[in-house]
Amino acid sequence: MEKVWLKHYGDIPEEVTYDQYGSMIDMIEEAVEKYGDKPAFHCGFRDLSFRDVDQLSRDFAAYLQEGLGLKKGDRIAIMLPNILPFPVAMMGIQRAGLVQVNVNPLYTPRELGHQLQDAGAETIVIFNMCTPTLAAVLGDTPVKNVITVETDDLLNLYLDSPPVHPALNEFSVRFTEALATGADMEYTRPEVTQDDLIFLQYTGGTTGLSKGAMLTHGNLLANMAGYDAVAGHLTVEGEETIITALPLYHIFALMVNLLTYFKYGAKNVLIPNPRDMVAFVAELKRHRMTAFSGVNTLFGGLMMHPEFPTVDFSGLKITWAGGSSTATPIAQKWAQVTGVEIREGYGLSETSPVVSINPPSFPKFTGTIGIPFPSTEISLRDDQGNEVAMGEPGELCVRGPQVMQGYWNREGATSKVFTDDGFFMTGDIAICTEDAMFKIVDRKKDMIIVSGFNVYPLEIEEVAAGIKGVVETASVGVADAKTGEAVKLFIAPKVEGLTAEAVIAHCRENLTGYKVPKQVEFMDELPKSAVGKVLRRELRDA
User: Fold this and answer.
1) CA 416, CA 418: separation in Å to the nearest integer?
2) Considering the domain boundaries, does residue 25 fall inside one?
3) Which of 104, 252, 497, 531 has most Cβ atoms within 10 angstroms of its Cβ?
4) Beta strands 75-79; 123-127: pairing state
5) Is beta strand 267-270 parallel, antiparallel or unpaired with respect to 241-244?
6) pTM of this prediction?
7) How far apart are CA 403 and CA 280, in angstroms?
8) 108 pLDDT exceeds 90?
9) From the CB of residue 110, how many other CB atoms can be counted at a distance below 10 Å?
10) Are 155 and 296 members of one domain?
């Protein structure tokens, strides 16, 4: 595909270099040396300075090397919420040359067991509250070492923490004990290059068993360089404050919030439980934020809180959105309240994650995923692998230095998602607009076929979101004797006085007949993943 998007680049370079660092270890060492006593992470009224992170992560790396005997390339799982031990453990893992396996703390025993077994992780750093989940499947995993994290670790606020499950007592050591032990051990800096693995980032498993995307130090450094090329001019080193409410085990927050802003010397405000909106908004009031990242559901929830407009937005420079499409009414209200436009991006676990973005130079919310990152190519292709014409829908395929090496121990699955010319096939359907921007119209598997016509759920959901008072919508295909499939629309929460008939009438005014929902169901809440994506599959299965 001709790089039609380059007309939007302006001062953005077409290509980026990322050889400034040989590995992420180099980046960490440079940042702690440069920013010293400045606050690096904040959580629960406590700061960790860059110097603190340097010492603590060094101690943890030494414990992993000398205390547990872990070697370069060994996999180690982290199952933690957004609390101070997460970045300390993560940087200790990287400095020991190990491969981090990020685990959702809300996983069920079945999900956790599969991931640990698939990754071959013999060590896990786990929040005490999650230990019953591990205990339920411990015998079916390779885990030998369990490092437990309490609520009060590194906070020293005398907070209570749930006990470790008794079945793990034989295997476990407290995180603070591991740090204290490692402080008296020798740390050996490993030989790590950009080609070495840094993360096994497991996909959500919506198309079957979860698979581990193999990401290297180079993949992440390339994506960080792309971010710097697009938005680095907005940052002042050592003076930024970014709010991290999205989970750090998710690649979006991990790359953008944690790693990139650590390099910038930012204070990173960790939000352990963003669903507690009262505490979340109270925390926002204590900081003069300069950067914020979120998803549609998070933005919507914040703006429903009566105290949110009283937060100080005078320092806010950028708001990033990802994970799922941001509804136009949500974006408009966010800009009205904060004075800053939402900038949507697009990415996947397999792409470290950013593929495309709406750069800060764009004056308004576009409702698109913007333009490719520097050094990144997008090609839209049909089922036969041919490029589609501009304006026509095709599978979004991406090639660039941030694309994964493949799926861990799954050569067959890897070969199925790469084209002969090296493009990763995302499974998302997109179009290139007349203005040379990309817009997701849905995933292949979510397409609804009504009387032979393709219907893309996002189009229906965006129309329904224009109804006054509607916060969230989702649409799926249901069996229909006449048309094969028909559209069913879910709305949550129920809007007082709004009827299914009124919704259908509104849709009929804005959609071609075969796209109009035949059924409308109101729910208290739509099912979502941990990062706020609406789970259409659950709605369809139900």
Assistant:
1) 6
2) no
3) 252
4) parallel
5) parallel
6) 0.89
7) 34
8) no
9) 12
10) no
